[in-house]
Design a protein that fits this description.
six-stranded antiparallel beta sheet, single chain, 30% strand, 7 helices, two-stranded antiparallel sheet, 255 residues
């Protein structure tokens, strides 16, 4: 059989460079070590800086490198392993350990796609609960939970702010008797707010998990959780619960 057009396409130069750089990270650099600047790296490997930049971006996406504000590009540690559950008892962040931690709750308009999923008027304000997820002292995810007023009608009697009000919103939501959820996962770029929360640069690769929480009457809430793509690998178990698996990369040592 003849060669297909796809088979005859040469490997992009940046992709080959990515492989070479990956081998160099294993042999010449330690976890947390700062890489030389782009000009020096490009000279070392005999490539244009544009080619180098593409390779570095791919390695960042794969979790091998991290770009840190005020520091530069460093060799990333193995991905952090945490377990993420959407079990009802964790809604209000009352369990210990590494559960979602409510930060605050405000009233604002939901983004148009979220309003469409909720079935609410885009001009109608909803409760927006902000939560973060930490593991081993590092924030690995930030979440916004959008809850229409019709889902928590008794909340008006609660006078509180900050984490206390966030928990109150989630408790009222739980009392509805959630009966299911559906979820989608996609690759995205960190918005300015998310980037600050996750200690990433704006535009850094992230994993966006959108979950629709259901009752017998329809959609009760929508959450949009943003995970660091360089530290998290998402898997789905038999139970349907979302987990973040530990990446079994060997510890990289300097030669």
């Amino acid at each position: 059989m003849g060669t297909t057009q796809l088979e005859s396409v040469q490997e992009p130069k940046y992709w080959h460079l990515k492989t070479v750089l990956s081998e160099a990270l294993d042999s010449d650099f330690a976890v947390g070590e700062i890489l030389p600047n782009e000009r020096d790296l490009a000279a070392r490997f005999g490539v244009a800086r544009a080619t180098l930049r593409q390779a570095l971006e791919q390695l960042e996406l794969e979790g091998r490198l991290q770009r840190r504000r005020g520091v530069g590009t460093t060799v990333a540690p193995p991905r952090v392993g945490v377990a993420v559950s959407t079990a009802p008892h964790e809604w209000a962040g009352d369990v210990g350990g590494e559960a979602w931690q409510p930060v605050d709750s405000t009233v604002a308009k939901a983004p148009a796609p979220v309003a469409a999923t909720l079935g609410t008027d885009p001009a109608e304000p909803v409760h927006v609960v902000r939560r973060i997820r930490e593991t081993q002292g590092q924030v690995v995810a930030a979440e916004l939970v959008y809850v229409p007023g019709s889902s928590v009608p008794d909340l008006s009697a609660i006078e509180a702010s900050g984490p206390v009000r966030a928990r109150a919103v989630l408790r009222e939501l739980h009392r509805l008797g959630l009966q299911g959820q559906d979820r989608s996962v996609e690759l995205g770029s960190a918005r300015a707010d998310d980037a600050k929360e996750l200690d990433r640069l704006p535009g850094a690769p992230v994993l966006v998990v959108t979950t629709r929480y259901l009752t017998a009457d329809g959609t009760a809430a929508v959450s949009v959780a943003t995970y660091r793509a360089d530290t998290c690998r998402l898997t789905f178990g038999d139970s349907g619960a979302l987990e973040i698996s530990h990446d079994e990369q060997p510890e990289r040592q300097a030669s």
